[in-house]
Each structure stands twice: as C-alpha cells, then as structure tokens.
Amino acid sequence: MTRTWQIAGVVDAALARIGTARLAAACGVAPVERTRLTALLGAQLRLCVAKGGTWRLTLETGTVSLAAPGARQSVLHAVVTPSPEAAAAGQPPWRVTVPCPEATADPGAETVADDPAGLAEALLGADEDTALVLERLTEQEDLVEFHREELQQTNQGVVALHAELDAAGRAQREAFAAERKARTEAENARRRLTFLADASAVLTASLDHHEIVRRLPELLVPEYASDVDIWLFDQDGDRPGPARAAAAVVAARTGRPQYAAAHPGGLPGVDDQPPSAADPDRPLLSIPLPTRQAPLGVVTLSPPGERWDPDDAVMLVELTRRTSIAIDHARRYEHHRDIAETLQRALLTELPAPPGLALAARYLPATHGLNIGGDWYDAFRQPDGGVIAVVGDVTGHGLRAAVMMSQLRTALRAYAVDGGSPGQLLTRLHTFLHHLQPDLFATAVIARFHPAETTMTWAAAGHPPPVLRTPDGRVRTLDAKPGAMLGIPLRQEIADHTVSMPPGSTLALYTDGLVERRARGIDPGIARLADTLGSFDADRLDADLEGAADGLLRPMLSDSERDDDVCLLLCHLSPTG
Hints:
With 577 residues, the chain is of the alpha+beta class. It is built from 13 helices and 19 strands. Strands 5-9-8-6-7 form a five-stranded mixed sheet, with helices on both faces. Strands 10-19-18-15-16 form a five-stranded antiparallel sheet. It has a five-stranded antiparallel sheet with strand order 11-12-13-14-17, with helices on one face. α4 runs antiparallel to α5. The radius of gyration is 62 Å and the shape is rod-shaped. The relative contact order is 0.06.
C-alpha cells in the first residue's frame, strides 16, 4: 500500500501529519512508535514549509528480513521528497521506517482531506495516542522519580556513611595524636627522671663541696642550660648584692626561685622578675640552694634556647635542692673531719727516747670518707723504768671515736702508773670501756720493754698480731692466742706473752688499715708486711728508723686508696756496741 501527499503549505503539512498518524494506527504501529513517527515527521514538515516549494510525502508498507532464518517483519516507510528547488540545491530525501503488523486499512478508502468526519476521527485517534504516550511518559516519570528518590536516599546514606567515616577518622587521628603526645610526655618524664637520678648520684658521690660545685655545670650544660653560675654564701652569712644579678639577690633574700626575662616565664613555683639590666635579652633562672636554716647560695642559669620547658624548670629546681643537700652534707663532713683530725693529731704522743730503744711512729688519715679518729698509738715510761708501747683502734669513725680514743689513752696511762703487765693493763681497759661506753668496742696491742731484760712482754685484744724481726733478718708473726675485743659484754682476763728480743731486733705494731684490703682480707697483708720488714738491712734499721718507717709504708699502701686510717709504731732495740 502506498499513499502520497503534496505539501505546499501549513494546511497540507497538517493534513499529511494527521493522515500519517491515522495510517500508522491502521497498520498497527505501536503508540510510542506512532508518536515518534509523527513527531519526527512534524519537525521535518515544518522545515519543508519554512523552505518553501512543493514537497511530496510518500507512505509505503513493506517487509524486511529478520536475523532468524526465513523470518520477516512488516514495516511502514515514510519518505519526504524535496521540491525541485531544494533538490537542485542538493537537499536529499528524508526517510524514516517504523515496524508494524500487516496493514488493516482499506487501500481504497477515501483520504482524510476529502472526509471531515474522518479528519475529526483522525484527530481524536491522534489525541488518544498522545494520551497513551503521555500515560506511558507519566509512568516513566514516576519510575524515574522513584529511582531518583532511591538515588537521593542512597546518596544521603553515602553522605552519612562518609560523615561517619570522617568522624571516625578524626577520632582515630585525635586518639593517635593523644597517644603520641602521651608517649612523648612519658619519654620526656623518663628522660628527666633518669637525668635527675644520675646527676644526684654524681653529686652525692663526693664529700668535697668544691668538687660538687665544679660538677654541677658539667651536668647541665648544654642540654638544660647554656651557662651556669653558682654563688655560695660566705660562712659568716655575707651576701653581697651589687656584683650579682637582681634575680639572684631576690632569690637569696626570699628563698624562692626567680625568673628574669622580658616576658613572664609561667614556670611552676617560680616568681617572675624584670629582665636583667646587664643583659636584658638573656632570660635568667635563679634558684636558691635551700637548707633547714638558710640558703647556702644561689644557682643562676641561662636557658639552652629561648626559654625553659615548665617540666624542665621543675626538674632543675629539684636538682638544685638535691645539690644543696649534697653541699651541706659535704660541708658538715669536712667540718667534722677537720675537728676529728685536729683532735687526733693533738692527742698523738710525742715519742720518748729511752736508752737502748728507738721508736718511730706514723699516722695517716683515710683518703676518703669520714674514717678518721679511731686509730692511735702511744709510748711512755713506767715508774720502774720499763717502756710501754701501744697501738689501738676504736670501732667507728669520726669525732666520737677520736674522743673515745683519747679517754682510753688517758686511762691506760693512769693504769700504767700503778704498774702492771700488758695483759693486766688490757684487762683493766676492757672493764673501763664496757662500763663507760657499752656500745663501743676497741682493739689494742701492748708491748713492754725493760732495759734490764732481754725479753719483751706483749698482749693483744682482738688486734692484728705484732711482727718481730730478729737481728739475723728472720721475721715471725707473734700470733699467740689474743684476747677478745675490748668492751664486749664478756668477762675476760687477757694473758701475757713473752718472747726473746735480742739487741738489733725490730718490732712492728700497727692497725688493720695498714694490712687489710676488702678484696683480699688481712692475712696476705700481714705476710707482705713481714716480707717488707725482712727485706731491710740491719744497718738501715740501726741508723735510720724513721726512714725505715716510710720505706715500710710505701709498698704497703701504694696499691690502693685508704678507706681507713693507718697507724704504725716501730720499736727497735739498739745493738750493743
């Protein structure tokens, strides 16, 4: 079937469009395809009318082959042929094809243009098609709106999920930052505590306050301070101010730490002051050295950078407090040591010079620690012409031991005036010490020489044994059973011992500080003393006993520092000549 329309104006174009819609409906073209066909055709016909001339619309039904073998489908072809003028200008024909079942229209039916009723029916059919298309479009719009709402809800869910993820990420980052901050603060606190402990150990290891003052800047520079100045007050309390920074003077007067800078420091427990007039650009932290009575001085520091961390300032204040305690202890130790050493040396006897007997004594205080005051020696004559030589050691150290030593020395001299052997004298001293100072003990060895006798009588109470060198160079240790320590809660009678001592013999009395070493004990030291004494020439002992005493000390004390005082008394019988 073929239908043709001539289009020369708007009316022709409208009739052709309506006829096309009616024919497409008659051919069974689907409404959507029908609407698409009429819409495309309407647009093309408007172009034709705009260009002018006479155009021809041809509708023709036919069939086309499908992909399946032997299958075919009916189609409706629409062709708009251009006017001669448009064709001459190169305008190609316009074509469109839509699928349709077999045509049901009567090929011989009259045209829409010749039948007004048919025109109205065609218009109504076109409206029905349009309504159907609009209904389908409404359904599609509803479906699109539904999917749009679903998409919007999905987008809102995604946005909410992103918000939750962002919040979780922020919380995680904040937790990580807090953890890093806490870890950093813990590491810094551990570093400060470790430094404080190590520095305190270094400062308290010395009992010389000058050494403590020297070590403090070495510990602080450059990590915690760029410069350290230590101002120790004079012992009489003089505190001159003009030569010191104003903050140091205020700290000395108030006993509180002071911070002097152009801006407040905000340091805990520290008062702020104006900047130093001498150097206003350099912050200063002045910390007093506190004691129970009054500050010992002031430590003034400059920061390693622009300013101190508040926690570092707290640590510096605590370190200064510990430094003050160390300096105060060192000064007290030095004071007690000086008193004890002065008393000790004042009480050491000037040795007598009896005929036929040479005496040489040495006393050396300990090189470190308050280990002074316990060791003593003495030598004096008895009314019968005999000579008493004694070396003793009071337990404990310091001023109390020195005082007890002086009392024992005085008591021994008093007892010896009434006579008595060495054992008897030690027994009396034991009773005296036990009743006078029940919590103090002592050791002692006494040797008695008499010009009318060729023997020497001795007794010991818990003391290292005497060492005897005979004129032939042989050396023996007088290790007969001694008595117990003096002053112990035990009743005892200390026995005398007698040994032959020909002229030219030398007896060495000493305290344990000469022979005892903590790592090796006392026996190796006694053996060394015997070997050293035996190595001396007899002529040297006869001619220079003082030099022999020095020669005996050098090899005995050269291998270590003395942590105890040392006492040595050499008794040499002059050879007959």
